[in-house]
């Protein structure tokens, strides 16, 4: 990857590689030089705006769809996730041609466009959330922006900083939104979120400089797109070419499908089914999110001690336990216990990413990570829809009065054997059991415990991203605030 330096007087870029040095003049339409800090501000403002609406969205969702709240929540988030999965590669390919700033602008604008509709027309609000999935790929463009302005050695830590900023914005904002909603009104929260979204768009227009040099891009906007690169299913079609990668992708599918479904409904479930009040949900988000980030700091040590494969299995066992606990639990303390397990189990996906990277050669890192990411993106669309449909099929109501009325009418809920509070969580727990069985047969990677003892040639085969994950821990993520699924937004 070329190393980029900036010449301030001429607003030009010097792209330096091993063989040549050339100047690439770019138009700097922002403030200062392109940097990771510009990307951090964009991410923080967008998700802070949506985080403020976490509690109001739950209330509006229940008011708009009182009889099928969980079903409609799953369908809205499912459509959004599937559209994001389909559009992300295309938008990424287009940003390589037209530049990052333009697509940062339209992704933030269209992702935040539904916010003011919340107090105008709730049906249009949820319809726009679904459709906005086409452009709800800000993270993809931000990561491309970060890649433009960092060296290979700096990139993993820069990505980790972006993920940590995202998590921090959602740890703070739900509690603030809940407090403002209780003290004032939903209208004030929506107005504040809209103002922050407008500020984000204005910041991109005025302050964010273009990170992709003009001469690095094709000469005209009419340049043909590499459609193979823009095909969302391209990576998935390559899954079967490697037995180990195939088993990893099956593990991701079986474990992340229920995880994505859980992300999409857990806040709604806690408030409407488990009688959490708005502030309790906000505190729950903050505590579990902070705990999950803290836990993942120790992942590097854990992988050195027990290895990547056993770390994956440990994470899957924790995920299975918390899903069953969510499914059977009927008391608030049980939800808190399940939330703590969810934080501990958040090590699974980073461990899978590290294992896949260790298994792959340096020149195939992008391809294999793309396979796993593609599988995960597909789950982000299917998981919420699956949970919503299961809630609907098992006739899970929001209060005891509805349930009593249904039972009196002789509805299908008369069978006692499936009357657990959260049937989708139970179903997800059984899927994770299958994921554990698959993971048990994943072959060990020889030498995975001792990266520092490898020969220089072997070290070159392991990407710098993996070295960071083994020695310093993975990028922080939260089991309840996920950048891909945007659970409650």
Question: How are the SSEs ordered, and which strands pair?
Answer:
Elements: E1 3-7, E2 12-16, E3 21-25, H1 36-52, H2 54-64, H3 69-98, H4 100-112, H5 122-131, H6 138-149, H7 152-183, H8 186-206, H9 227-230, H10 234-237, H11 243-272, H12 278-297, H13 299-306, H14 308-328, H15 332-344, H16 348-359, H17 365-393, H18 400-408, H19 423-440, H20 456-461, H21 464-472
Antiparallel strand pairs: 1-2, 2-3
Report on the structure:
The chain is mainly alpha-helical and 489 residues long. The chain contains 21 helices and 3 strands. Strands 1-2-3 form a 3-stranded antiparallel beta sheet, with no helix packed on it. Strand 2 (12-16) and strand 3 (21-25) form a beta hairpin. Helix 1 runs antiparallel to helix 8 and helix 16 crosses helix 21.
